[in-house]
């Protein structure tokens, strides 16, 4: 496509963000506003035996868990329920009588300032009776383990199975069966802007105004309505600029409810901004899983069956999305490979840790790590080249649409993408660099991984089938105003990923106007349309973009009809270029969008065709018929110091396909950002719990996100396989960079240490873990 779709334009959002003009939730200042702070229990598991707020109540407004429970009409909603007999936890924004994870809130206060609120917290007297903590998967599953919920028979909150084909036959007939176990540490997204909310309750109208750093304003509004017992029409959620979401801000939390209750209690606006230490304990944690798998294969490398168990290590209560990511790990474990027989059990347990939730990539990075590690291990066992095993098992182009165990993949050219990556690595001379390094006595190696990604989530039917009690459609509105300017009202949220620019490009492309003639408005449930899901699962560009494209295309037809009337021509003879409409081949007979706008809104007489209604506005509700599968191949060049266990990444390459690219600059940036998070997840980041279940990770000194010095140069290569079922052919890619990094880095480390025969089965590959693996390999 020519025009704005595909153009590498700079992001329209950035000037404001880079010059400090952004307005985040913490910048919202309202008259008479109070600030709130939460008292958090440091113990992992305890009964609250006494809580006395009288002293604090003399200087501030205080709510305890019991008071919050009495003030709401429903517990915190769990919207992702993908197991038949799932046990739900009855959770409230504050612990009522029992604390089930370190950092859980037990009281909240509102005072004239945050400092005053923190001072008031010190006056709240709480006594606890500590209970034995269940901090690990093994502790949770142990015979006779203490139970987090007295009315449950054990600590298992859900069991479910993803199954397809005849697994038993596949294993009975296999030439080789390979078994392995993988561990993933707890990790989380760490947006620079921590979570925050301002709530303002109007006692006269009964309306609740909320400013919230969220990826899903409609979702948050409905959850607030459910918990507070308010009709959603009485709630307005606005999202100012969001300083990174990364999934944390997709989920719905108790703090939103606390701010609203405090505002209702005091009759004043209340702001609640979490600090960084709180962010580590109170934001959704993710990734922690143990995955046991067995692969059945033929001697030629054909994988015939997969079976095993995904153990999800959840926290002390269910977050809004419960164990959704663990289910997605199981559902997507076969990745780009045509494996006919699958039986993956999912067992989700509760532990005395922070609740589990969303983090960019959801279950896919773990599914990819397991799948790619098994491909490499299988190749090694069979004496085959790993890429040959990949090629043998790839879903071939002619097999699409392809039914995987849960999702139908729409399209893909996996072997071509692998070739693209290998060619780019060859051109970059990595083999020579490894040979040189090894000649110098340095352990260097190259690793690969191949991934596919379910994006454009997704038909409401599939969203519902996979357990989410929400929908997968988007509503978008495109208008031309009386001055000819284009306005897109979207339900999607901007959180740094450039969605405003992308939607403006699509609308501008369809209507034939330059980018600076388009404004995108988002982040206000009163004025923006409904999106059934919110912004996550790499869906905004594909689902929202398709809706904008369709609405703008329809709007263009009306623009042309009005222009034809003004020009006394036929609409079929008109073309639009750079905001001017003219008879093809006669550019001097033209009208501008401003004249068309004027004719549609203001001076209608004799200008607006008689059979047309005034205004220029089109609304499109789009529920895609399927997800769209993007895909990519990651390659990593690394050096390892076997004495210290330190891994240094020298170079990083991703070959990628996300269908029609809207903005190549943004796509590259998204891949870079995602890859940086993959690197953090593969080498550094770990939320640690010490003896007795206390949480040890409280600052960025403990939680090591990679900085610029740890990030290697990136090279990207692109190809395009459009999603034919989506208008525009867009596929999503906002999570792509984070998926393939773990396995590729592990393979590079193994390759560098090939003389030692090291096997990587856990992430992150921290120096102590790697040294232990080297020691273990040397002992064999
Ligand atoms: N894009 C494109 N062409 C395509 C697809 C995407 O040009 N075919 C560009 C668009 O500019 C779009 C961006 O890539 O705005 C991401 O598009 P998409 O894949 O639709 O992802 P979403 O907008 O749905 O964003 C969500 C995704 C997720 S789930 C997380 S988490 C995430 C992310 O993207 N969090 C981010 N990227 C992030 N980037 C930043 N800077 N900050 C975050 O918090």
From TrEMBL:
Pfam families for the chain: Ald_Xan_dh_C, MoCoBD_1, MoCoBD_2
Residues annotated as signal peptide: none
Keyword entries, A-Z: Molybdenum, Oxidoreductase
InterPro entries reported in the protein's UniProt record: Ald_Oxase/Xan_DH_a/b, Ald_Oxase/Xan_DH_a/b_sf, Ald_Oxase/xanthine_DH-like, AldOxase/xan_DH_MoCoBD1, AldOxase/xan_DH_MoCoBD2, AldOxase/xan_DH_Mopterin-bd_sf
Ranges where the Aldehyde oxidase/xanthine dehydrogenase a/b hammerhead domain occurs: 19-132
Source species, domain of life: Bacteria
Keyword Oxidoreductase carried by entry: yes
Protein name: Xanthine dehydrogenase family protein molybdopterin-binding subunit
Species in which this protein is naturally found: Amycolatopsis melonis
Statement: the UniProt record of this protein carries the keyword Oxidoreductase: yes
């Amino acid at each position: 496509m020519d025009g704005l779709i595909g153009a590498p334009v700079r992001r329209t959002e950035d000037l404001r963000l880079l010059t400090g003009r952004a307005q985040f939730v913490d910048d919202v200042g309202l008259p008479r506003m109070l600030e709130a702070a939460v008292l958090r229990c440091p113990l992992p598991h305890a009964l609250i035996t006494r809580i006395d707020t009288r002293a604090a109540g003399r200087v501030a407004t205080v709510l305890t868990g019991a008071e919050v429970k009495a003030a709401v009409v429903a517990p915190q909603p769990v919207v992702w329920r993908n197991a038949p007999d799932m046990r739900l936890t009855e959770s409230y924004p504050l612990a009522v009588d029992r604390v089930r994870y370190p950092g859980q809130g037990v009281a909240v206060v509102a005072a004239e300032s945050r400092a005053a609120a923190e001072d008031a917290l010190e006056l709240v007297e709480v006594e606890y009776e500590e209970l034995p903590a269940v901090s690990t998967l093994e502790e949770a599953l142990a015979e006779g383990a203490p139970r987090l919920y007295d009315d449950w028979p054990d600590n298992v909150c859900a069991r479910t199975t993803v199954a397809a084909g005849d697994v038993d036959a596949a294993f009975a007939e296999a030439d080789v069966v390979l078994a392995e176990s993988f561990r993933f540490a707890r990790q989380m997204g760490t947006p620079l802007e921590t979570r925050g909310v301002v709530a303002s309750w109007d006692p006269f109208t009964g309306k609740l105004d909320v400013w919230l750093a969220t990826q899903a304003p409609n979702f948050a509004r409905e959850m607030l309505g459910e918990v507070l017992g308010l009709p959603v029409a009485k709630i307005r959620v606005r999202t100012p600029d969001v300083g990174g979401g990364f999934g944390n801000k997709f989920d719905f939390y108790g703090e939103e409810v606390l701010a609203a209750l405090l505002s209702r209690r005091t009759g004043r606006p209340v702001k609640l901004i979490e600090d960084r230490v709180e962010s580590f304990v109170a934001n959704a944690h993710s990734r922690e899983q143990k995955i046991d798998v067995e692969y059945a294969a033929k001697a030629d490398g054909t994988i015939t069956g997969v079976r095993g168990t995904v153990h999800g290590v959840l926290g002390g209560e269910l977050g809004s999305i419960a164990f959704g990511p663990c289910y997605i790990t199981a559902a997507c474990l076969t990745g780009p490979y045509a494996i006919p027989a699958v039986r993956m059990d999912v067992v989700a347990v509760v532990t005395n840790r922070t609740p589990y939730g969303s983090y960019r990539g959801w279950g896919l990075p773990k599914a990819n790590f397991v799948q790619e590690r098994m491909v490499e291990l299988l190749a090694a066992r069979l004496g085959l080249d790993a890429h040959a095993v990949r090629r043998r098992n790839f879903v071939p182009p002619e097999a699409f649409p392809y039914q995987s165990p849960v999702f139908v993949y729409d399209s893909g050219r996996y072997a071509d993408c692998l070739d693209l990556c290998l060619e780019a690595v060859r051109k970059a001379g990595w083999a020579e660099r490894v040979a040189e390094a090894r000649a110098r006595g340095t352990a260097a190696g190259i690793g690969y991984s191949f991934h596919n990604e379910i994006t454009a989530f997704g038909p409401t039917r599939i969203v519902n089938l996979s357990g989410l009690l929400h929908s997968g459609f988007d509503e978008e509105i495109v208008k031309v105003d009386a001055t000819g300017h284009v306005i897109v009202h979207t339900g999607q949220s901007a959180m740094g990923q450039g969605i405003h620019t992308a939607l403006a490009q699509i609308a501008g492309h369809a209507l034939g106007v330059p980018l600076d003639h388009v404004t995108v408005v988002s982040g206000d449930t009163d004025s923006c349309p409904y999106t059934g899901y919110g912004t996550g699962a790499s869906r905004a560009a594909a689902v929202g973009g398709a809706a904008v494209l369709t609405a703008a295309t329809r709007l263009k037809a009306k623009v042309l009809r009005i222009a034809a009337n003004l020009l006394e021509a036929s609409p079929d003879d008109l073309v639009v270029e750079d905001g001017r409409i003219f008879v093809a081949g006669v550019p001097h007979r033209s009208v501008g969008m401003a004249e068309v706008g004027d004719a549609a809104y203001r001076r209608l007489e004799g200008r607006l065709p008689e059979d047309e209604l005034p205004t220029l506005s089109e609304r499109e509700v789009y529920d895609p018929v399927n997800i769209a599968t993007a895909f990519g191949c990651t390659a990593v060049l690394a050096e390892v110091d076997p004495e210290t266990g330190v891994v240094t990444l020298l170079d990083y390459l991703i070959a990628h396909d996300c269908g029609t690219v809207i903005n190549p600059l943004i796509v590259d940036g998204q891949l870079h950002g995602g890859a940086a998070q993959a690197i953090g997840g593969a080498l550094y980041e770990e939320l640690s719990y010490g003896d007795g279940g206390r949480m040890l990770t409280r600052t960025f000194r403990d939680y090591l996100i990679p900085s610029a010095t740890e990030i290697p140069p990136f090279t990207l290569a692109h190809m395009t396989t459009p999603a034919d079922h989506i208008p525009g052919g867009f596929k999503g890619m906002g999570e792509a960079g984070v998926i393939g990094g773990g396995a590729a880095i592990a393979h590079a480390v193994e390759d560098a240490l090939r003389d030692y025969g090291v096997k990587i089965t856990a992430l992150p590959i921290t120096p102590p873990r790697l040294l232990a693996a080297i020691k273990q390999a040397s002992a064999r």
